[in-house]
Amino acid sequence: MPTTFLHMADVHLGYQQYQSEERLKDFSRVFRQAIENAIARQVDFVLIAGDLFHKASINPTTLLQAKVPLDNLRQAGIPVIAITGNHDATRYGQRFSWLDYLVADGCLTLLKPGFTANGQLDLTPGNGGYIDLHGVRVIGLNYLGASTSSILTDLPESLAALPKDVDFTVLMAHFGLEGEVPNLNGAISHSTLAPLKPHINYLALGHVHKPVVRDGWIYNPGSLEACGMDERIWAGGWYHVTVNGNGHTADHYKSERRPLHRLKIEVDGFGTPTALYDAVRAELTAHWPAMKFSGMAPVVQVWLEGVLAFDRHDLDTRFIETMIDEIVQPLKALVRNNTRATEYEVKLDERLDRTGLEQQVLTELIIRDERYRPQAAQWAQLMVEIKKMVLQESEPADIADAISRRMVALAEAETGEAPAALKTKLAQLKAELEAQDVD
């Protein structure tokens, strides 16, 4: 008879996002949803791959949000195996966490292996590093931060020494994969993980809130709820895994999240605040039907970007929030003001030398013209170089030649080819300068 289990991660109970009581409840609601699914499917066990809680210090409400569903699993005879994530780790200077409390209360088993004298993971029986259930071995690797890569490098040796009395092995760990989320610190490369494959049938990950599956053995279900507006496009949930011998199937189920919407509006074309507000109203009205389909009031963010054509202080973001409330009736109305003012305001980096400061100022000025914005840094560099040539009293023809070559290169970089008219005009300018005796 096949063994089945449910794999979830990044529950983040206790996260009162946007200071909203309803958002606090949302994280609890999707956790109950996953637990009810596990009970309905009569899985053999449940894995929680880190970050059951959003922070180490929780209040009684959050503890109940965890305990009641876990008690329901216990009453159904379904054990829960968990590891510690970076959010719910023991606070500095303390020995016990709220996960340890749930262990003492009999709600779950926490895998937390120790280390040998030479720093290798200690997976000897009885040290809390693994547990065997229904013919499946589950090994736990809690969040280790910067040490993760070195521990994983040494792990194959420890895995090879384990008893060979099961057909299927799960490694549950809390770290991110390289290449999945930009600028993720400590992400683990494929080359680091590849030596684990002969020993591991299913790598059950948490930490990254985006669902990921790689090579038929690496799985990350994504967070049950979106922990930020940027995560709205990631359909997180859980995996229902069926094990047959040393093979498996893993089906991903999406959790029913509260909808989050972002409307991006370029402000460059609006000469007055009223014109901008009218445009925001039109966008909200056009998108309103799509925001209402799920039956749950959405979180709506208006994202303003570009260069303002009026005084920055005349932009009333609170008025826009009120407009969102009136048109959409969201759970939460948000405005993100990423606009830049028309007036000259440059925050200078005092660490730069004179040339660097000049280039920074020029770049900030050029950005204000949308025609040259994509290549603002390159145009600024050209201006600095031409100024240097002038101060060095370079020949006008040489200056014209330098301008010609750089402008053609910029045009080619932007369009793929330099316009013929530009080449002709620059050639004429160079010829005229060569014909003149200019000081």
Keywords:
439 residues; 3 domains; Purple Acid Phosphatase, chain A, domain 2; single chain; 17 strands
Describe the structure.
α6 (273-291) links the parallel β15 and β16. The model has no long low-confidence stretch (mean pLDDT 87). This protein folds into three domains: 3-254, Metallo-dependent phosphatases (Purple Acid Phosphatase, chain A, domain 2, 4-Layer Sandwich), CATH 3.60.21; 260-340; 354-435, no CATH class. α1 runs parallel beside α2 and α6 (273-291) runs parallel beside α7 (317-328). The chain contains eleven helices and 17 strands. By secondary structure, it is an alpha/beta fold. Helices cover 36% and strands 20% of the residues. The protein has a six-stranded mixed sheet with strand order 4-3-2-1-13-14, with helices on one face. It has helices spanning 21-41, 60-75, 98-104, 148-160, 190-193, 273-291, 317-328, 354-367, 376-391, 396-415, 420-435, and strands at residues 3-8, 45-48, 80-82, 109-110, 114-115, 121-122, 130-133, 136-141, 168-174, 202-206, 212-214, 218-220, 237-244, 247-254, 260-266, 299-307, 332-340.
The CA-CA distance between the termini, in Å, is 93 Å
Biggest sheet: strands side by side, in what order? 4-3-2-1-13-14
Shape summary = globular
So, the CATH homologous superfamily of the largest domain? Answer: Metallo-dependent phosphatases
H-E string: EHEHEHEEEEEHEHEEEEEEHEHEHHHH
Q: What's the total number of strands?
A: 17
* Total number of domains: 3
